[in-house]
Specification:
Length: 191
């Protein structure tokens, strides 16, 4: 017969085993397939393999850009597009209600997938800043000093409470330094 301590340890071990094997219940590319206005955005999530990183997150907010707006970055190299789009993935669940609550009377800074992958916390390159402007509009931009809040929230697209939220924004957010590809070094003929 097991004592209560042994039973408690077995229950705890079972709980840890079950909780560690739980995966997310969403697949961002399957979700976005239902919205043809985001087909190019979805295409880039697949081409850059960001969808696999997004799908592994326990709770997340995607700032999606429609086909017309995303065309402004379509000529950039794929690695730059990946960096730009990883800045559009917030590490937490924010629907409109939660955003408004967070932003009431203050500006907030949000951590993104870009920060997790390659950000520099000193320059704030991998963070986004948001604030309420003009009677209830939400403005978003890079948190890098002097970048400005140049993008607006358009509307909620999808929300699964506490798991995933997809919000449409007006344009891609490009932090200074991630919107251009690395310059190619040309050998100096004099050296």
């Amino acid at each position: 017969m097991m004592n209560s301590r042994t039973t408690s340890l077995l229950i705890f071990a079972f709980f840890v085993l079950v909780s560690s094997s739980v995966t997310t219940a969403f697949h961002i590319t399957k979700i976005l397939r239902k919205y043809p206005e985001f087909s190019t955005y979805n295409h880039y999530l697949i081409k850059t393999d960001l969808q696999s990183q997004i799908d592994r997150q326990p709770n997340i907010t995607i700032l999606a850009v429609d086909n017309k707006a995303i065309s402004s970055i379509s000529e950039k190299p794929l690695n730059v597009i990946k960096n730009i789009l990883s800045l559009h993935v917030l590490h937490d669940y924010y629907d409109i209600e939660k955003l408004v609550k967070v932003l009431t009377s203050k500006t907030a800074i949000f951590t993104t997938l870009y920060q997790t992958n390659n950000g520099d916390p000193v320059s704030l390159k991998g963070f986004l800043e948001a604030s309420m402007v003009n009677e209830g509009e939400i403005a978003i931009g890079s948190a890098v000093l002097g970048s400005g809040l140049t993008v607006k929230l358009v509307k909620p697209v999808l929300s699964h409470p506490d798991t995933i939220s997809v919000l449409q924004i007006t344009a891609p957010i490009i932090a200074p330094g991630i919107g251009a590809s690395s310059p190619v070094k040309v050998p100096d003929p004099d050296n």
